[in-house]
Amino acid sequence: MTTLFGFPTQALFGQLLLGLINGSFYALLSLGLAIIFGLLNIINFAHGALYMAGAFVAWILLNHLGLGYWWSLLLAPVAVALFGVLIERTLLSRLYKLDHLYGLLLTFGLALIIQGMFRLQFGVSGLPYAVPAELAGGTRLPFMYLPTYRGWVVVASLAVCLTTWLLIEKTKLGAYLRAATENPALVQTFGVNVPLLLTVTYAFGVGLAALAGVLAAPIYTVSPMMGADIIIVVFAVVVIGGMGSIMGSIVTGFGLGLVEGLTKVFYPQGSTTVIFVIMAIVLLTKPAGLFGRSS
Amino acid sequence: MGDPAASVSPAGTAAPLLAVDRLEGWYGESHVLHGMAFDVREGEVVTLLGRNGAGKTTTLKAIVGMLEKRRGSVVFEGVETIGLPSRKIARRGLGYVPEERGVFASLNVYENLMLPPVVRPGGMSLEAIYQLFPNLKERSTSQGTKLSGGEQQMLAIARILRTGAKLILLDEPTEGLAPVIVQQIGETIRRLKADGYTIVLVEQNFRFAQTVADRHVVIELGRVVDEIPNEALEANLEKLHAYLGV
After folding, report:
1. CATH (one of 1.10.3720.10, 3.30.70.920, 3.30.360.10, 3.40.50.300) for B15-244
2. Rounded to a whole number, what is the distance in Å from the CA of B116 to chain A's nearest CA?
3. Distances from the Cα of A265 to the Cα of A13, A159, A219, A257, angstroms
4. Are B35 and B72 in contact (CB under 8 A)?
5. Interface probe, candidates A39, A186, A247, chain B, greatest B C-beta count within 10 A
6. What's the distance, Cα to Cα, between the start and end of chain A in Å?
7. What integer pLDDT is reported at residue B11 of this predicted model?
8. What are the beta bridge partners of residue B95?
9. Within 10 A of B178 (CB to CB), how many other CB atoms are there?
10. Per-residue pLDDT averaged across A291-295, rounded?
């Protein structure tokens, strides 16, 4: 058996791939959180619940309407984004002038309600969602076995993250978003409809969470608690990357997924805590986060 | 709502382009404007003079709709705007250049320049703007806030000129700038006046105001206490010194 640093390469690369997949979800979720926090000043605790909702919409579309994975990839984010519009218009828009804490409490409450509703309806045991036929199987690489679906998740997540980054950094709409993140009142005096921009941004952010949920459905079981499990880690990722930093959340998401994977190889006992240890170190040395603007 | 063009009468007999009346404004609990009233005719450059804290900046903010709590009347081109949100006021053709300039750090110079949407036809073309402010072209890919103070002021003015706004509210454009830059800004304002823009200028420095304005509105404690035509400024120096406490 080939080894690297005294560890079997098969295990090493296997864990790296798992880390990269977790990183794909961290990146998609923290990206949405970063965009929402940047513009709306809301720490969206409902993010995990909406990720879970995305996975459930996919499951419901398949089992009740016969619409498969590819349709879900399109429809679930749209459905959750529309729900996001409802949340933003009716609830969040009343909180913008208040302290962060109110947004956090409100969205935390929403998360509990959404999770509770899915628990009542679907129980806690989790539901299976099959890998789509087109992405079944895998490839035997010289150093490891790569399941096609997992490769797809990494590629899809990277593509969505980079497209989002381009959208924000290189387009006119993105310029509005960046400017309104800095000074919404002034952007409004230019004639830009900032309230609409806030709604669209929240919808887009939670749409990304739902997309992550659909991508996750065939890998993890679809369960009401799947969002609550991942969101704590994602918040640590956001803190490490720097609240509100777009590229920071993408790089940190993938990076910390890999770190977690590597820890599983070299020091398995530490794999569930390593991200929080890094968070503590970052908070002590660079409180604004690795990519955060210190102002 | 009538056709906005119809309410603009020929010069001389013209209804004012901007009519501020009984304007009250608050910052939170503190009542800052106490019945401001003044008119601005089309093509005029009017300065608001007054001591620190007299309410000059607040008046501009109340006109553009940035002040949360405001009351009274602000009629722009015959249309009452006091109840409109700031984005709708801007869309009627009113451009605002804030005191802190409001250049965005996360946008480069070009993006800053192109940010405000065009609200009316007839705004300056990009070429014309670059001719007026060549530095902005040279530095178009720099981060907005990496520009010098003077260049940032140029950028803040330039981006409004693109939008086709007819009335421009300028809040202390010369504050903290070197004399040569102040001169350049003075030239720009005179050039804009010649091009038919109407400008309301907030100034502390009446010596600068004198070089560009048609009329001076003197503000004290949130009220208009005097109006002095520019020709009469020298004759009223003593009075003005008393108002401004200089």
Report:
1. 3.40.50.300
2. 5
3. 9, 28, 21, 13
4. yes
5. A186
6. 52
7. 47
8. B168
9. 12
10. 66
The per-residue pLDDT for B6 is 43
Closest-CA distance of chain A to residue B102, Å = 7
Of A52, A38, A73, the closest CA to residue A225 belongs to A52
What single letter denotes the amino acid at residue A12?
L
What does the H/E/C string look like for chain B? Answer: CCCHHHHCCCCCCCCCCEEEEEEEEEECCEEEEEEEEEEECCCCEEEEEECCCCCHHHHHHHHHCCCCEEEEEEEECCEECCCCCHHHHHHCCEEEECCCCCCCCCCEHHHHHHCCCCCCCCCCCHHHHHHHCHHHHHCCCCEHHHCCHHHHHHHHHHHHHCCCCCEEEEECCCCCCCHHHHHHHHHHHHHHHHCCCEEEEEECCHHHHHHHCCEEEEEECCEEEEEEEHHHCHHHHHHHHHHHCC
Domain A3-285 sits in CATH at 1.10.3470
Task: Say whether pLDDT at A42 is over 60.
Answer: yes
Q: A227 near A112, Cβ under 8 Å?
A: no
The alpha helices in chain A, defined as continuous H runs, are: 9-40, 47-65, 69-90, 100-122, 148-170, 172-182, 184-189, 194-216, 226-241, 246-266, 274-285
Element (H, E) at A220: none
Query: In the structure, what pLDDT confidence band is assigned to residue B13 with cuts at 50, 70 and 90?
Result: low
Global ipTM: 0.88
A111: tokens are 């998360």
Give the separation between CA B98 and CA B173, rounded to whole angstroms: 8
Neighbour count for residue A205 (Cβ, 10 Å) = 28
pLDDT given at position B3: 46
pLDDT tens digits along A218-233: 998 899 999 998 999 9
CA A30, A36, A42, A47 torsion: positive or negative? negative
Q: Which of A39, A172, A189 to mutate to test the interface with B (most CBs of B within 10 A)?
A: A189
CA dist., res. B232 & res. A87, Å (int): 59
B117 closest CB neighbour out of A178, A185, A191:
A191
According to DSSP, residue A257 is labeled H
Angle subtended by helix axes A9-40 and A148-170, to nearest 10: 30
pLDDT at residue number A8: 76
Q: What percent of chain A has pLDDT over 90?
A: 69
Domain ranges for chain A: 3-285
Provide the CA B192 distance to its chain's centre, in angstroms: 12
**CA–CA min distance A192, chain B (Å):** 6
pLDDT at position A268 is 85
Going by C-alpha positions, the residue among B79, B136, B85 that lies closest to residue B109 is B136
pLDDT tens figures, A157-181: 999 999 999 999 999 999 999 999 9
Enumerate the β-bridge partners of residue B108: B143
Q: State the average pLDDT over residues A47-52.
A: 97
